[in-house]
Amino acid sequence: MRTSHEAEPMCEIDDLDLVDHHCHGVSAAPLGYEAFASFLTEGGRDMLGAIDPMATPLGLAVRSLCSPVLGIDPHAPIQEYMERRSALGELEVARRMVAAAGLSDLLIDTGYLADQVLTPAGMGRLGRYRTHEIVRIEAVAEEVFATAGGGAFVDEFPRALADRARGAVGLKSIVAYRAGLDLDAARPVARTVSISLARWSPGSRIADPVLLRHCLWVGVDVAEGLGIPIQLHSGFGDRDLDLWRADPTRFTPWLRRIPSSVKICFLHCWPYHRQAAFLAAVYPNVYLDTGALNTHAALGYERILAETLEVAPFEKVLYSSDALGAPELYYVGAMRFRSALASLLGDWRRRGFCAHADAVGIAMAIGQGNARKVYRLGE
Amino acid sequence: MRTSHEAEPMCEIDDLDLVDHHCHGVSAAPLGYEAFASFLTEGGRDMLGAIDPMATPLGLAVRSLCSPVLGIDPHAPIQEYMERRSALGELEVARRMVAAAGLSDLLIDTGYLADQVLTPAGMGRLGRYRTHEIVRIEAVAEEVFATAGGGAFVDEFPRALADRARGAVGLKSIVAYRAGLDLDAARPVARTVSISLARWSPGSRIADPVLLRHCLWVGVDVAEGLGIPIQLHSGFGDRDLDLWRADPTRFTPWLRRIPSSVKICFLHCWPYHRQAAFLAAVYPNVYLDTGALNTHAALGYERILAETLEVAPFEKVLYSSDALGAPELYYVGAMRFRSALASLLGDWRRRGFCAHADAVGIAMAIGQGNARKVYRLGE
Amino acid sequence: MRTSHEAEPMCEIDDLDLVDHHCHGVSAAPLGYEAFASFLTEGGRDMLGAIDPMATPLGLAVRSLCSPVLGIDPHAPIQEYMERRSALGELEVARRMVAAAGLSDLLIDTGYLADQVLTPAGMGRLGRYRTHEIVRIEAVAEEVFATAGGGAFVDEFPRALADRARGAVGLKSIVAYRAGLDLDAARPVARTVSISLARWSPGSRIADPVLLRHCLWVGVDVAEGLGIPIQLHSGFGDRDLDLWRADPTRFTPWLRRIPSSVKICFLHCWPYHRQAAFLAAVYPNVYLDTGALNTHAALGYERILAETLEVAPFEKVLYSSDALGAPELYYVGAMRFRSALASLLGDWRRRGFCAHADAVGIAMAIGQGNARKVYRLGE
How far from C169 is each of A103, C109, C172, C231, CA to CA, in Å? Predict the structure, then answer.
């Protein structure tokens, strides 16, 4: 089962507890096949009619890696897999997957599908790890607008965001989905914000580029005030994206303007992970992960991690799974990440570029230490 | 000769007949060295004066892979290779190459160099496979304009395109070359089309962005009516390209507007094959290949295919060679594709991600099954 | 220490003297830790406070590869490394590194940090190789403006640039940093140049897009007249960059306009090295290297070189280190380049794509022969 590349495993990495700095809750309700499959694609339920949702790299990874955790054969048919899931019950599947994933801390984005997935508290009851909240800027903006209306928004939003952020370890923005990372970096003036607020129809999501800029600048202020980082979705995601506008280097004008004390963590990044690594190498406050690719690109993740670590300083790379809904994603992400990291560091070691202790130190930094510092999690 | 990666070959792939869903006819006339060499570069004859045209990855692949098919040593000098070609005759070389390529169906783009290469019927006489036509939208537009003139174009073009398409299995567009895939996605109004038609000088090729949009929308209508897919050139090609504008994700606004029943097949894609794979993973009607790279990037094709299959669903990837003029391209493309696919699937199998039967199923889907479904070719 | 990939080394490459066609002088003064570390990052001194500057791929490469050249253990702590450097003296370290690098010719860009690094003459005294000058267009423009002022600039600059170029083997432009490679390709008219000159404040660097275009066109004229190439920074660099605007394919409109006799050498290119290789494959006068990545991406350089050689003609690829300040960069760049090239060519040979003699010929072309021709260096 081992390729020559995996000949000298770095056992310390197998036992390394990870800080998953960007994930979501698992489904609160039992997952039928369609709901389960839809959590394995970024294409939504439409894709289920077009393709066999298990005939993907992630589908193969889930079946081969997760089946043994459920006590069945790695290549068991998907019907058998779903029956076994159902027999164990959703919460038991979740408990097994997160336990097997080997995590010390989960940083949970609470701003997406909040009514369908477990809260951080609920997630905390599933296993022996700490949970922390990441507050999604746009979700808070939509709540404030729904409650306070456009008239009070400008005053209320900063207060509300700061309130929420005080109980959290970081903020997150999804401007990449709504306007692209190439949105104008200038802080919009009050008058244009008012005009945009007047156009925002109640019930609709925040989409106006001026409002998105305004909210992100408020996020920058809050992050600066509290000394917490901002996570920025970039690259890989769903059909809302114009992918090329989610290239993190499109955000460069913002990086030049925001206070250097505000740390920016680019999430996912692929296929622009080399670009994100470049930013991490030249901006002191830029960090990155390749979360979601250790699941959606599970079988090729070795190459993606290796490309990321071509130029990225070792203290700038973080781990995340971007798991959402299906608990299998926690496990697949963690296992593929550990394996890819062990493969890369083992290769460096074999070629004489580092000593064993160096390799272990790099693994610990990327797997947990960097996130502990960035989010001030303590030990 | 085998690397450790190739230690456990998947023999089924060696015997897998391929559907080459995007190719062109071979030269109708015997190829002298200069003509032969110019079919091995996208740079045109200018390149022949600047470099040794065989001192390229494709040059090495042709010499090493094709020489034995002609009965000479794999590393025979190019002079000997050309003499042997000449002694066998162009049609015999073509017969040998396409037979050795192992193809069941050729989908032939008839809109390029039609006066220099064999027709689908001519190609059909070279071997035991079926041939089908792909109609190039812009070529038909140019024919209609030359015949009917600008005045009758708006009425004539849809009729002519539908007529041609009825005898074909798909359409193709080269807007990426002429205007970029970032051309405006709105269907142009009649008045702007008229203005652009009035500016089109007889004898010149179609280049006006409004006309290109108009013709592509007509293509969408015809494709929807007949239930056939549209092939879209993207990425790698010749000097007409502004390469970055041929990134398939630039076409996203079109994907949001066209009917979801119209299947889009992105061709070539490199160096944006990861981007195309993303689209294939989130849009039910998007497909892709990395044709032309199994020839022009022959020696590194393993990596390109592996990158494509990082996130692409297995039912969304197709095979093509983009062979044109020199029959060697059929053979090199097919051999490098099979070898790269066997290497990747063998690797997945060895690492336990799939069973042997899964791997064979994936190979059959990508090599032929997917194309059979998309183009409704039957068995 | 060898992976299976390195099992059959191509010894000829170990002994191949390289032409380093893009480098800078080493530090004239002894380097303390902070100065040394700052030459190992493109992020400037700011990065030193944010991360351990040795906790990077380049940091590992320097420690593991260079320590033995200084006579200490490959994994010696950085303190010991710096003490050893200090004991030997800066010039002795430089002598050892450039000697160990195995270089026949250095083409030295004299337009950056000229007051801190050795001149070409000074570099020439360090070892047994020839040195040549590359003249930076923007540096000459800034000198002329400082001396002659805006009024005389239009007349003086072409004269001054031609004078400087006559003693050099090529020009270099850094428009990618100042305006992006997507700057307008039209030669600006005299009146707009005058307006921009009037706005240029003495002492500031050249940044106006019109002036940058004007100067680059003057560079094109001078290069055409003297038959010398122009080097163009692209891709990887420092915080001045909007990286996506430094994609070489953004320069395509210029490639269509400049005389085809003017050779363009794209430097660095990563993460757009595939894009640059495409241009080299279709434009007779385009060349490329992946310099700076054999140092900054030292541990992953095998993949970067392999991606470059997916489609690049072998006569279009050059070697450079982009070494600046720290002499270790000369050595790391050369060693990683040789190793990556030997690995790739050895792989092609093992898989039967070329004979041993072909592989040696390709290595000699890329390592030295191509640069000798492009810069007319003689033997």
Answer: 58, 10, 10, 11
User: Are C348 and B299 in contact (CB < 8 Å)?
Assistant: yes
Q: Give dist(CA B335, CA B14) in Å, integer.
A: 8
CA distances for B160 relative to B77, B137, B144, B146, angstroms:
48, 10, 7, 13
Q: Which amino acid is at B93?
A: V
User: Tell me, what DSSP letter sits at residue C42?
Assistant: S
- DSSP track, A295-328: HHTGGGHHHHHHHHTTT--GGGB-------B-TH
Share of chain C above pLDDT 70, in %: 98
Q: What is the DSSP string of A121-186?
A: HHHHTTSSSEEEEEEEHHHHHHHHHHHHHHHHHHHHHHHHHHHHHHTSSEEEE-HHHHT-TTS--S
Residue B157 is inside which H or E element, if any?
helix B137-166
Residue B102, CB-side half-sphere exposure with 13 Å CA sphere: 18
Q: How many residues does chain C have?
A: 379
Compute the distance between CA of residue B267 and CA of residue B287 in angstroms, rounded to an integer: 9
**A371 and A105 in contact (C-beta within 8 Å)?**
yes
Q: In this predicted model, what pLDDT tens digit does every residue of C156-176 receive, in sequence order?
A: 999 999 999 999 999 999 999
Residue B188 CA to residue C11 CA, distance in Å, equals: 62
A194/A151 Cα distance (integer angstroms):
8
Min distance C43 CA to chain A CA atoms (Å): 4
Can you tell me the distance from the alpha carbon of A102 to that of B255, in angstroms, rounded to the nearest whole number?
Answer: 40
Neighbours of C374 (CB within 10 A): 23
Subunits adjacent to chain B (3 or more Cβ pairs under 8 Å): A, C
3-class DSSP state for residue B103? strand
DSSP string for residues in A243-300: GGGG-GGGGHHHHHHS-TTS-EEEEE-TTSHHHHHHHHHH-TTEEE--TTHHHHTGGG
For the residues A204-220, what does the mean pLDDT come to? 97
Query: Which chain B residues have a beta carbon less than 8 Å from that of A2?
Result: 351
The helix/strand/coil state of B131 is: strand
End-to-end Cα spacing for chain A: 36
When computed from its CA atoms, the radius of gyration of chain B, rounded to whole angstroms, is 21
Q: Model confidence over C342-360: pLDDT tens digits?
A: 999 999 999 999 999 999 9
Q: How far is it, in rounded angstroms, from Cα B181 to Cα B202?
A: 25
Mutate which of C239, C295, C296 to test chain A, going by most A C-beta atoms within 10 A? C239
Tell the residue number behind the tokens 């050099």, with chain if given: C168
Q: Can you give the pLDDT at residue C15?
A: 92
Mutating which of C310, C358, C370 best tests the B interface, going by the most B Cβ atoms within 10 A? C310
Residue C327 reports pLDDT greater than 50? yes
* Summary mean pLDDT of chain C: 96
Q: CA-CA distance, A342 to A12, in Å (whole number)?
A: 9
Indicate the SS3 state at residue A27.
Answer: strand
pLDDT at site C5: 37
Q: What is residue C1's predicted lDDT score, i.e. its pLDDT?
A: 35
* A25/B146 Cα distance (integer angstroms): 62
What b/e string do you get for C326-338 counting C-beta neighbours within 10 Å, with b at 16 or more? Answer: bbbbbbbbbbbbb
pLDDT digits (tens, 9 = 90+) for A115-138: 999 999 999 999 999 999 999 999
